[in-house]
Design a protein that fits this description.
342 residues, 18 strands, 6-stranded mixed β-sheet, alpha+beta, 30% helix, globular
């Protein structure tokens, strides 16, 4: 249980009177975290948190890559930005070591600080400072993880660019006849017959690459970590990713097999108006990106550029291309549909 004395040890709450500290301690949830456990996930509902013990790091997924953008130590608070703006949390807060935090929901917070306007002003001032820092981070263009050289109307180049986009990989696309293409590439451009060509951040260059090779170069998962799973899901469209979220959130060892990139056909839609929870509509790319982040955060494995060659229902075995075999307690088919011409 959080005590009034512990509330008083948080500097920004020190101006609260004895009665308000007591009320705050009674309203606060006492949360104990092990290293790696999240106190808050990105997008969670607003609340005020105070770090009583340990160290919390602030993380955001930017361009598909997790970045640590700050930390909170004993005596610090977090949640002031969502409380001030009336929004969800702009980042996630994860324990670096065993930690203890106090959580006060928005209604209890407003009821208590109403009698201590100086504390509310301090928290609002802190929120303004941190909003400025978040704006600076958002304004930073993420560095490209790859450079692609290819012609505008080349279908292979278009397929490569689409694959990178749908896997949330930032890249720079150079058109060979552009005036500054050689300068951007850093030397003579690949020959036309070698396009498209991709160069990744560590300097490796591959001409006319297969998508699985691209995935491997960029560190996208293409191999299963284990041989047995609670759930194997075939297809990473909205249905497959939803199944992954539900399975992983229940603690099931979950893996999703996708032959190209997460999102399915929905991921290519400019606007989706009939998806639950988005009354104003959402782009297919945004929907797929959010679902992918959520599934990964909960621990689901997402394999890309892998196909299923056979499913043995009697033995619960899923056969992948290249001869890999996975065994599952449950197999979920979320294959979607393929549009055909004619």
């Amino acid at each position: 249980m959080v005590t009034a004395e512990e509330i008083g040890e948080v500097p920004i709450l020190g101006a609260l009177g004895e009665k308000e500290r007591e009320r705050l301690s009674q309203a606060a949830a006492d949360i104990r975290l092990v290293a790696g456990e999240f106190a808050v996930n990105e997008g969670d509902e607003r609340a005020l948190f105070a770090v009583l013990h340990g160290r919390i790091e602030v993380v955001r997924v930017i361009d598909g890559v997790e970045r640590v953008i700050g930390e909170r130590l004993a005596g610090d608070i977090f949640g002031e930005v969502p409380l001030t703006l009336g929004t969800g949390f702009p980042g996630a807060y994860r324990a670096v070591e065993p930690s203890r935090v106090a959580r006060v929901d928005v209604h209890a917070y407003h009821a208590i600080v109403a009698s201590s306007p100086e504390v509310a002003l301090k928290i609002a001032s802190l929120a303004r400072e941190r909003i400025g820092g978040l704006q600076g981070i958002a304004a930073e263009p993420p560095p490209p993880r790859a450079i692609v050289v290819g012609h505008r109307w080349d279908p292979e180049c278009a397929a490569l660019r689409r694959f990178l986009d749908r896997n949330q990989v930032t890249f720079k696309w150079l058109i060979p006849d552009a005036a500054d293409a050689e300068d951007e590439w850093g030397g003579p451009l690949p020959l036309d017959e070698d396009c498209p060509t991709i160069r990744v951040v560590d300097g490796k260059t591959v001409v006319r690459p297969q998508l699985r090779r691209v995935a491997e170069l960029l560190g996208l998962p293409t191999q299963a970590a284990d041989a047995e799973y609670d759930a194997v899901i075939v297809g990473a469209g909205p249905a497959g990713l939803a199944a992954a979220v539900y399975g992983a959130s229940e603690g099931l060892r979950t893996i999703v097999i996708e032959r190209e990139a997460p999102g399915g056909q929905a991921g290519t839609s400019a606007r989706i108006e009939n998806y639950l929870g988005f009354p104003s509509g959402v782009s297919g790319d945004e929907l797929a990106g959010r679902a992918l982040q959520q599934a990964r955060r909960l621990g689901a494995e997402i394999l890309v550029t892998r196909s299923i060659t056979r499913i043995d229902a009697a033995t619960h075995q899923v056969h992948l291309d290249d001869g890999d075999v996975l065994k599952a307690r449950t197999i979920i088919l979320a294959c979607g549909v393929s549009r055909t011409q004619g």
